Amino acid sequence: MSKDFMDEYEPLLKKEIKTRKWPKLPNKSLLLAACAACIGGTFQYGYNISVINAPTVYVQNFLNQTWRERYQTDVSPDFITLLWSIIVSMFTLGGFIGVTIGGTLSVKLGRKGTLLTNNIFALLAALLMGLSYPTGWFELLIVGRLLTGINAGIAICVQPLYLGEIAPTAFRGAMGMGTSIFITGGILTGQVVGLKELLGREEYWPILLSTTCIPAILQLLILPWFPESPRYLLIDKGDSEGCKKALKQLHGVADCDGEREDIEKEKNNLVGVQARKPWQLLSDGSVRGQLITIILLNAAQQLNGINAIYFYADYVFKQSGIPVDKIPYVTVGTGACECITALTCGMLIECLGRKVLITGGYTLMSICCVLFTITLSYQNASPVVPYLSMACVFAFILSFGLGPGGVTNILTTELFTQTSRPAAYMIAGSVNWFSFFFIGLLFPFIVIGLQQYCFLVFLVICSLVVVYICLVVPETKNKTFLEIQNEFQSSNGSKVSSTDGAGTTLLSTTSI
Predict the structure, then answer these.
(1) Do both 336 and 209 map to the same domain?
(2) pTM for this one?
(3) Which residues form the Major facilitator superfamily (MFS) profile domain (predicted)?
(4) Are 358 and 469 within 8 A, CB to CB?
(5) CA distances from 298 to 122, 484, 511 (A)
């Protein structure tokens, strides 16, 4: 190659080398802020889902003993089961209440302020459940579980908001996976702490249920050192200096200007627009496509069969020849699997994108539904078949953690702009908790009616979700919230409006 040619193209070669550099790692302060938000947020949600399983028999004995001492008569096993079901289901009711107020609190108190205030429910719940045994009042367990549900409902609504708004665009997906990682981490921790070697013995069950105070105390100690969401400070509160200071702490001095510019663009596009209420969002035709998407994805997250798999896990493990006293340790293995896949998804999401992971996850879950139905149908055909069923359980959990378990919350954050996002989370969370309650109520009847073919119902749900995502949902990787709004509405034939000075098409938003 001639020297003249090299001299002519040397600047271009240098530029090419410069643009192909590896992305910088997130700021340490940003990661610590995310961990502080998650430990008292969705970690609590996962922990309180699993920790209640270990002391089931001990709490039922306490209910029977308390009833006998209070009324000098034995109580029927059916009534004990009813009381236990009420204690467990109060978590779901509390979650529904929490998610309906979480969005409003996030606007009134801020994202960080709501997360800190939310710990009051966890601390009260720990106190009441711990006092239930020494006082002989099982009603305290009911109220305590209701409060843990409210805490979880608010956390699952507000924490993803905080993570999505403090994260730079390049790391928004990986940061958003913190929600899923800490949920699965909470589930795994609850399973481990509930083992007999730790707090799983009968005399320790009040202490076990009271340990929900530990994540709350940790968050109260750590989160105050980190700032409020920069987007909330600038767009909702108009605090320019506070936003600038928060961005510098979270992203570093060198990287804060670009993020501030994106926030300014979004603010300018939302001039005169107030934070929306859920009913206002439901009546707005310009975001109908996004609403339908998050409603379907959040319903599918509970109705896709993951809870049914956990329901069937003990049965499959028994059929595989695993001793009953060893099943809790295998169950810990399922929790570890989901935790590992959530971490894997967090590392892959910025490389592969949201759409690939969530469609791939649901596709693999569909395949697992078919295989699980076959193995359940021929459970006694060969000694190998129960082990194949056990493999299907692990494969289904791995597939769920790979995409649907984490990407759903990220999409709820990314498909809406600042003024619509809290209301969107209230709607999505309400659908999620209602679907959780619905599948818990209906699944036993599905099993009775369809027996081993019950997973064909979940096959249909997972397959339909794959088709919908492929046809309707755009990829959101490395795009600003305004760009995502623009692309989503453009792909659905909606009209877009004005353009800013930089040539970025902005969406018009109707003033409330």
Answers:
(1) no
(2) 0.80
(3) 34-477
(4) yes
(5) 25, 19, 28
Residue with tokens 């060893």: 326
The enclosing domain of 56 has a CATH number of 1.20.1250.20
Buried b / exposed e across 276-289, counting CB within 10 Å, b at 16+? Answer: bbbeebeebebbeb
User: What beta strand segments (E) does 304-424 contain?
Assistant: none
Spell out the SS3 assignment of 214-250. Answer: HHHHHHHHHHHHCCCCHHHHHHHCCCHHHHHHHHHHH
Predicted local distance difference test score (pLDDT) of residue 308 = 72
CA distances from 441 to 260, 307, 445, 446, 467 (A): 47, 12, 8, 10, 27
What are φ and ψ of residue 170, in 5° steps? Answer: -70, -20
pLDDT the model gives residue 255? 64
**Could you tell me the pLDDT band of residue 319, with boundaries at 50, 70 and 90?**
low
Task: Say if residue 308 is in the same domain as residue 439.
Answer: yes
At 508, phi and psi to the nearest 5?
A: -80, 140
68 CA to centre of own chain: 41
Q: Do 120 and 188 share a domain, yes or no? A: yes
pLDDT digits (tens, 9 = 90+) for 177-229: 888 889 889 989 998 998 888 898 888 999 999 999 999 999 999 999 999 99
% of the chain with per-residue pLDDT over 90:
24
- pLDDT tens-place string over residues 131-163: 999 998 989 999 999 999 999 999 988 998 899
Ranges of H-type helices in 137-282: 139-166, 172-176, 178-193, 205-210, 213-222, 230-231, 240-251, 256-269, 278-282
- 473 has pLDDT over 90: no
CA pair distance 343, 270, nearest whole angstrom: 35
Greater pLDDT, 87 or 75? 87
Tokens of 226: 């980190």
302 lies in the same domain as 182: no
Nearest of 54, 39, 50, 47 to residue 206 by alpha carbon: 54
372 within domain boundaries:
yes
Indicate the number of domains in the chain.
Answer: 2
Say how far apart CA 90 and CA 149 lie, in whole Å. 7
Residue 88 belongs to domain spanning = 27-226
Between CA 10 and CA 341 the distance in angstroms is: 44
> How many whole angstroms separate alpha carbon 488 and alpha carbon 306?
29
Is residue 16 assigned to a domain? no
CA atoms of 337 and 354, how far apart (whole Å)? 21
Other C-beta atoms lying within 10 Å of the C-beta of residue 441: 11
Rg (CA), the chain: 25
Q: What is the pLDDT of residue 97?
A: 92
Boundary of a domain, candidates 196, 226, 256: 226
The answer to whether 158 touches 106, Cβ cutoff 8 Å, is: yes
487 in any annotated domain: yes
